[in-house]
Write a structure and sequence with these properties.
EC 2.6.1.-, 389 residues, Aspartate Aminotransferase, domain 1, 4-stranded antiparallel β-sheet, transaminase activity, alpha/beta, Aspartate Aminotransferase, domain 2, pyridoxal phosphate binding, 7-stranded mixed β-sheet
Length: 389
């Protein structure tokens, strides 16, 4: 008997994660240059590591409050207010197992089967898989012809079509995979479309400290009561392995999301929360040196790719370049990345892995050392010369 036939339909219908599958494939290739890594290649700042060590020494080894330690929630509240003018009380902050859990908790708390989640694409595919497993309908808005930004009129058209079924809008900025950032005016215009409608806005701002060309803008500033804000310590402090994310929302909304969190993880490891508290409280500018290095890498990578014929979306944040495959090379991005891995020993990520609008592109992460970027560009140049028709 095949019992998988009787499991959750939305889950069984999902394909395995293509990004992780490709990463596993490239791990077997020796001496490969990886532009696939979605995490900083820097070390966690020493003062944060010492805070984790001190927490262990102080025997902070018991359950923390489910919503997070008071110290971490206070530090996160103060960080958001000081850095971005986002006003959340500590009891409006929930600590999760990375933003990955934040997304799952929020979607589970909001979406009923048949509800519509609207998402601009290309986008990191996690949101889509979660929504499908919950029985929601996902409406993708392809932004590839609009500078990879959601246009208010296209959002309005979806609302006009689906009406009261629309329950959630997902916004991620700076955006993975394109590195595109919205201006405050652009976010305000999008907010106006859903204002005073029973529609939540999931605003994933995990890359907020990695804005290169402007101050961080946020939909929260103009739509506070409908926004569920997500952030964390993974990217700005190179703490991906600490697995600490935060959700910020008006308390009545947060209280419902917290019920899902309580059911699946109870609480996060106390020493990791103490380390995250140190990051938010005393590491407010820790990302600045890292950001300067990322800008240098970005400029070298973009210039090198464009010389090879790749048309690049100019990254304004995060640490990704989204590049159009040149004419004359294999246009099926999935076939191309496997061939690049096998024959050039260069790993990049297929644009089609990031939903509608991504086909024909590749994503390259510049969260890798400069010497690796330079070596990767040399290998790409040789590949292009040998394979371009």
């Amino acid at each position: 008997m095949d019992l998988t036939k009787y499991m959750k339909k939305g889950l069984v219908e999902q394909k395995p994660g293509q990004i992780l599958a490709f990463a596993a494939y490239t791990n077997k290739i020796p001496n490969i240059v990886k532009f696939t890594i979605g995490e900083p290649d820097f070390n966690t700042p020493d003062h944060i590591k010492k805070a984790a060590e001190q927490s262990i020494e102080d025997n902070h080894s018991h359950y923390a409050p489910s919503n997070g330690t008071p110290g971490l929630r206070k530090a996160a509240s103060e960080f958001l207010a000081e850095k971005y003018g986002q006003k959340y009380d500590p009891d409006e902050i929930l600590v999760t197992n990375g933003v990955t859990e934040s997304i799952y908790d929020m979607l589970t708390a909001v979406l009923n089967p048949g509800d519509v989640m609207v998402i601009p694409t290309p986008i990191f595919p996690l949101y889509i898989g979660d929504a499908i497993s919950l029985g929601a309908k996902v409406v993708q808005i392809d932004t590839s012809k609009d500078g990879f930004k959601l246009k208010p009129e296209k959002l309005q058209a979806v609302i006009d079509e689906y009406g009261d079924r629309v329950r959630l809008l997902v916004m991620n900025y700076p955006t993975n995979p394109t590195g595109v950032m919205y201006s405050q005016e652009e976010l305000n215009a999008i907010a106006d479309v859903i204002r005073d409608k029973p529609i939540f806005a999931l605003c994933d701002e995990i890359y907020s400290e990695l804005n290169y060309d402007q101050e961080h803008a946020s939909m929260e500033k103009t739509l506070h009561d409908q926004v569920v804000l997500m952030n964390g310590v993974s990217k700005a402090w190179a703490m991906t392995g600490y697995r600490i994310g935060i959700v910020a929302a008006p308390k009545p909304i947060l209280d419902q999301i917290a019920k899902i969190h309580q059911a699946i993880t109870t609480t996060e490891p106390t020493p990791m929360q103490d380390a995250a508290e140190e990051a938010f409280a005393n590491g407010k500018d820790d990302a600045l040196p890292m950001k300067e290095e990322f800008k240098k890498r970005r400029d070298v990578l973009v210039e090198g790719l464009e010389k090879l014929g790749f048309d690049c979306v100019q990254p304004q944040g995060a640490f990704y370049v989204f590049a159009k495959i040149p004419e004359g090379l294999e246009q099926d991005d999935t076939k191309l990345i496997y061939d690049l891995a096998d024959n050039a020993h260069v790993a990049v990520t297929a644009g089609s892995f990031f939903a509608k609008g991504g086909a024909g592109y590749v994503r390259l992460s510049y969260a890798v050392a400069m010497d690796q970027i330079e070596e990767g560009l040399k290998r790409l140049a040789k590949y292009v010369e040998e394979h371009q028709k």
